[in-house]
Design goal:
This protein is an alpha/beta fold and 276 residues long. Helix content is 42%, strand content 22%. The protein is globular. The structure holds S-adenosylmethionine.
Length: 276
């Protein structure tokens, strides 16, 4: 079951100050605009295959980066509804839709994905990206995605499995301690590896998984910042000493400069069909 202790929260469950919202927008836009993510989006949206004229809901849409790609695919004549508990993030999404001249097929609704404000069978397809790991229980969102999708319709969730993050160089035990410190702070850090079984448990048919591996060997600032943030979190949480955190990040940064660094992480796009 996709349940976990409710006291576990991460930055995405409490976007309640202007500073947190600004940081969230920056993070989503930065991560979502890497070359690897552009390629990943093409792959999983090709699998979901939203078509002109279709209606799609994007739950936990954030700044709407992916919602807009879906909007472009359902245009003309379709509609995509971005749902998120954060009105501020949806404001950003609305402005982006306007700038992309896609307002006609774009809508936004402030709501919790565990209780969607839509009638049963409202959409041809439903989508949810990088959300389940922040929600307790994530399974409630998957059940709602199924409820609001028509029989025969498609539902897709995409989740990073943070424990698949690997990096070289680094002393093994220290690397595990640093990376797992942050992994264990997510509400459900294993949401990626649990997705297919959750879909089957929820009664979807024709469940398929598309594994997507992001690899960085060039020292992409997005991933180097991610590595620094992991070390900082572990330091603040008392899991490593200042010297250990500095030595670990320093060795990785030096390896990136010397073209001897390797980082990879795997996300899973899972697609299921609502039984007819
Ligand atoms: C990591 S962001 C992903 C945003 C977007 N899907 C993307 O990939 O660009 C997680 C999003 O989940 C939203 N979220 C948090 N709790 C939620 C809930 N209970 N129901 C729906 N969305 C939620 C957050 O507000 C945030 O926008």
């Amino acid at each position: 079951m996709c349940t976990s202790p409710t006291e576990r929260t991460d930055g995405w469950t409490a976007l309640d100050t202007p500073e947190r919202i600004t940081a969230a927008v920056r993070k989503l836009e930065r991560m979502g605009r890497t070359e690897a993510e552009f390629a990943a989006r093409r792959r999983y949206l090709d699998l979901l295959a939203p078509c002109p004229g279709e209606s799609v809901v994007d739950v936990g849409a954030g700044t709407g980066l992916i919602t807009l790609d879906i909007a472009a695919r359902v245009n003309p004549g379709g509609r995509v509804v971005a749902v998120d508990p954060s009105a501020a993030l949806l404001d950003h999404a609305r402005s982006a839709a306007k700038a992309a001249r896609l307002s006609e097929v774009f809508e936004a609704e402030v709501a919790d994905g565990r209780a969607l404000p839509f009638a049963d069978r409202s959409f041809h397809a439903a989508f949810c990206h990088w959300v389940l790991l922040h929600v307790d229980p994530g399974s409630a969102i998957v059940r709602e995605l199924k409820r609001v999708t028509q029989p025969g319709g498609r539902v897709m969730c995409v989740e990073m499995d943070w424990e698949t993050a690997i990096v070289y160089p680094g002393e093994r035990a220290l690397t595990r301690r640093i990376l797992n410190f942050s992994n264990d702070r997510h509400v459900e850090g294993w949401s990626g590896r649990r997705l297919t079984s959750l879909f089957k448990e929820c009664g979807f048919v024709d469940v398929v998984v598309e594994p997507i591996v992001d690899v960085d060997q060039s020292g992409d600032p997005v991933w180097l910042d991610f590595i620094r943030e992991r070390a900082q979190n572990a330091l603040e949480g008392g899991s490593v000493s200042d010297a250990e955190a500095r030595a670990w990040t320093g060795a990785i940064e030096a390896a990136a400069v010397a073209d001897r660094y390797f980082f990879a992480i795997t996300q899973f796009a899972v697609l299921g069909r609502v039984p007819t």
